Amino acid sequence: MIREFPMIVIDKNRPAALPLDTAAKGSRLLVVAIPPGRSRTQLIRLGILEGEAIRVIERLPGGTVVIEKNRREIAIGAALAKNLLVAARDPAHSDSSHA
Amino acid sequence: MHSHTAKRAPRDHLEKHRHPGLAPAERPMVALVGNPNVGKSLVFNFLSGMYVDVSNYPGTTIEFTQGRYKEFDVFDTPGVYGIGSYNDEENVTREIVLEADTVLNVVDAVHLERDLFLTMQLIDMGKKVSVLLNFMDEVETLGLRIDVELLVETLGVPVFTTTATKRRGFDRLDEAIEQARRGRQDGALHHKLHAMLAAVGSEAEALLVLEGNDAIAARHGVAAGSEREALSIARRNRVNRVIDEVLIENEGRTRFSTTLGHWAINPWTGVPMVVAALYLVYLFVGRLVAQDLVKFTEVKLGQELWEPWVRGLIAPYVAPSSWLGTILVGEFGIATMTVTYLLFLLLPLVVAFYAALALMEDSGYLPRLATLVDRALNAVGLNGSAVIPLILGFGCVTMATITTRMLGSEREKRIATAILQFAVPCSAQLAVVAALLSGAGFAAMMIYSVTIFATFVVLGTVLERFLSGETTPLLIDLPPMRMPRLDNVIRKTAYRSYYFMKEASSWFFLGALGVGVMQITGLLEVWQNLLAPITTGWLQLPRETARAFVMGMVRRDFGAAGLYQLPLTSSQIVVALVTITLFTPCIASVMVMLKERGLKEAAIVWTGTWIVAFLVAGLLSQLLI
Questions:
Q1: What global pTM score does this model have?
Q2: Do residue B117 and residue A66 have CB atoms under 8 angstroms apart?
Q3: Tell me, what's the pLDDT at B12?
């Protein structure tokens, strides 16, 4: 079965996008926008792009964030986390995106 | 299906990366390519029978390694998430992939979704590919199921399942090389590639040009494409669709290693873990080996057994007081002091240090440590990844200076190199420092540590403030925590210690010879008098300490060793050790710095170490003595 994936979900009924470094530990999120720049290509390769589901597993003092995506843990520095926008995932939606 | 015979690009641009001493390749080229930490090196070790440094952290292979297997030349490449020009590792891997006849793509089956991005890109490049689906044992443990047949069908290339750590599936590597073939490219991409193909000659390079790779575009005098992002996103979506079809996730159990990994990055549990890890390293390297074992080897084996024996051996032929006698068996004798130092002091310490480091690496702890200290390192203009060169620096500054290549920007490489050359004592030097300090008492040890650490912080902050450029934010994939494999730890420790000793020995002998000659010719006296105002006036140390400085220019630990014979008070020991620690780095690391950072920067750092060493130690001396 081939499912279509939401690419960019911008919906007025959804909670507003917030920077990743402000997201609470343990929260399940959807990526809304990734910043331009050198890290962008690497983020896309690692599968962190608009519409993908992630979960925050650690938020360190100073803003370094560790997220989990498909059994992988990725550490994201403060400067990058500040510019990476996320939104809360619908509970109904939470485990449907293949992440 | 068409087949393109790619015009063979000259192998010249590969030559500059090639390890010296290996014959230029004319045989079919097989490249092992994959994400970091997926087991490429284990496959390579098996095929070539050569040992390649294997670690559970990214960045182990910065240069590539070439070996032979049957009629093939096999290449191990640095781990990458895609083929491009993101960093030095990618540049190396890209060139090998472009040249390779066959690509063995090693894939982590547990993290298929990450790894298939590279697989798809290799297929889009039109390379002949076989996929080795590794870590199959963990797939089962985690309750995952992979429909391998469907994967073969979707990708259009053969897939072989392996468990590299147990060498399971390795009997089919021959088949993997033989059956490698071109896979199913992205349909939309196909005709775009054709248009570009006429200009650049190979499909692989055509793809990279389309993806906006400036280096390849420049090589063929064409304009780089602007579609990198669109192509990457399309590829990522293709991967996601494939995963959706071939991967079935069942409820797996959470492994203890995952929990342990989480503890390591949680500040409340992570900081105590760092302290505990450092304390264990201190107990093992600093206490057990540096004090107990070395006391036995150095005094009993070196000074009481070896040195009298070699003096007795030489005595009938050369008078000990003659010039030759001085060089051979004198104070800095190349047959006495040098041998004792190398074999009975340095060797046990270096082995102990590398063993501790290997355990930390193989457990997957280092990247987590990098995450934990990320913010702190931001303060000195670095990001968490720099913790790897810095820790390696405590092993060998020379080796660590090479690994600064893995850092994201010129600015970070510059800062990390400077910090390493100024303020990080290497294991050999630490050994001698620890031995001297243990005689000077606890207060001395604290004053020394605080002074060196303060210099590190001040230097880093100043560089952070005044160096232009930007610090790249941390973005690393954390490998799973694993139980280190004892055989790998032993092999790695032995391999690294061997190369370290091999490298260190010649400089040690050369240094001893140099100081011996200076002693005979009276140059040592001249040098001591020259530096006397600084040594006795400003640093308030005995005149002879200047000798240690000459020796320190050759090797840092050698310099510290030169302090051994001097009658020093506790305060003087601290001042002398601070000087010798901050003082000019050893010849080998200066050479590497020259190569990596260029003449101007190396000269600035080298001169800077003189100034900082005498300044800081002098101030300390005025305070203490």
A1: 0.81
A2: no
A3: 44
